[in-house]
Amino acid sequence: MATSHRHPALSRLFSRDLRGHLDRPHFIDRFQMWSLPVIACWMLIIGTRNGYSLKTRIPENPEASMNLSQIMSYWGYPNEQYDIVTKDGYILGLYRIPHGRGCLGTAPYRPVVYLQHGVSASAFNWIANLPPNSLAYILADAGCDVWLGNSRGTTWSRRHVSLSPDSEEFWAFSFDDMANYDLPATIDFIVKKTRQKQLYYLGHSQGTTIAFISFSTNPKLAQRIKMFFGLAPVGSVNHIKSPPTKLFPFLESLTKVLFHRKAIFSDTKFNQFLATKICNLWVFHWLCKGIFFATYGSDYRNINESRLDVYMSNYPGPISVQNLIHWAQIITSGRLQAFDWEDPALNIVHYNQVTPPLYNVTLMMVPTVLWSGGEDMLADPADVDSLLPNITNLIYHKRVPYYNHMDFCLGMDAPQQVFYEVISMIMTNMQT
After folding, report:
1. Which of 141, 145, 340, 376 is catalytic?
2. Among candidates 241, 217, 228, 265, which has minimal Cα distance to 383?
3. Contact by Cβ (8 Å): 302, 407
4. DSSP per residue, 30-89
5. Catalytic site includes residue 376
6. Residue 351 in contact with residue 200, Cβ under 8 Å?
7. What is the rounded (10 degree) CA torsion for 204, 209, 212, 218?
8. Annotated catalytic residue within 157, 205, 236, 372
9. What angle do CA 9, 314, 401 make, to 5 degrees?
10. What is the rounded CA–CA span in Å between residue 313 and residue 1?
């Protein structure tokens, strides 16, 4: 097993004694709120005293200003884009890499692999790094027909046949709807387009949650999945490092007031502006880097720091307020259940019962392979351990001791720790 590599300053900052007294997300929020302006001024002073000016810039990666198709084309990969319309009218952007750079045309025997991102992310997850470290490119070069999904409300799926993304009605959804509408519509389209009866499903974080829901409640859909690969699986969040549950009613009300039941992080153009116009200035680059790593992981050695502008142009993505509230409900209840409309009458309308139904993961019969992280703050190891006995057809589970939540997508050694194992299992399964 690989060992953890930690930045010395962060190791001292988050020592065991300190972690015992401070909840990390709380600490980070307070740190960012009060310290960032001070740090920004300090770095500006230090930078100018050492000969750096506001015009001194870190070299920009061209992909920081590109959309998904442009990024894939930039690296020489063929790609296709499709619009999928769900039963409730959302238009989803679905992307495809039909083959790798060294292949010509498609072939009927190529294994079809569908990649599903997590919360506050998009299909960018799978092409974020250079080709040798990005899962979508690695799969395509290995001979797979790769499909990249985008859940409703994400940067590349912000359309509806009749609703405007400026309306509250557009954002009235949570991961329930992704599991019940987005996933079936997407998989149905892929199966028809490729003329293959089954495909391989790979999800990260919330991408595993909607799979647990869909494959346990929709047997017909589950039959179309040859194997389910789950990275940082989330079936419960009892041990998530979060604010005390007593605060959730207050936080829910505050979120609704601030964001009007719509979405947070919805201005994706601001991400790109921040990444390419502000954070690539030398005096602010290190501040931006510190914020990013504090949010997405502190293992500096396992992230390609030179691609910070590319990452920040795409993270964080939009999250609907209702989806955020749904996760808060899961944390509070400690159970994986449907969205609680907080009104018995509304619950009866939606579920024909006064309380939201629970999801029974044990009903999922799809062959399942899971990878989890030993330092994951969202898919906590204790929660993963409680999930494993409920996976009826669990084939394999691997825990990478030093992995946090985003290492499965952005980690430089993710190919060695995860991706090559995925390919090996696909190829072995194809031969049986």
Report:
1. 376
2. 241
3. yes
4. HHHHHHHHHHHHHHHHHHHHTT--TT-BPPPPGGGG--HHHHHHHTT---EEEEEE-TTS
5. yes
6. no
7. -110
8. 205
9. 45
10. 33
Over residues 317-328, the pLDDT tens digits come to: 999 999 999 998
Bridge partners, 368 (sequence order): 228, 394
The residue annotated as part of the active site, out of 99, 160, 204, 405, is 405
> 148: part of which helix (H) or strand (E)?
strand 145-148
Identify whether 239 is a catalytic site residue.
Answer: no
Active site residue 188: no
Report phi then psi at 396, rounded to 5.
-160, 140
Q: What six digits make up the tokens of 326?
A: 């749904």
Number of H helices, E strands in the chain: 19, 11
The phi, psi pair for 400, rounded to 5°, reads -90, 110
Below-70 pLDDT ranges, the chain:
1-55, 104-108, 241-260, 297-299
Which of 341-360 are b and which e, b meaning 16 or more Cβ less than 10 Å from the residue's Cβ?
eeeeeebeeebeeeebeebe
| Vertex 405: Cα angle to 246 and 146 (nearest 5) | 130
What is the pTM (predicted TM-score) of this model?
Answer: 0.85
Amino acid at 416: Q
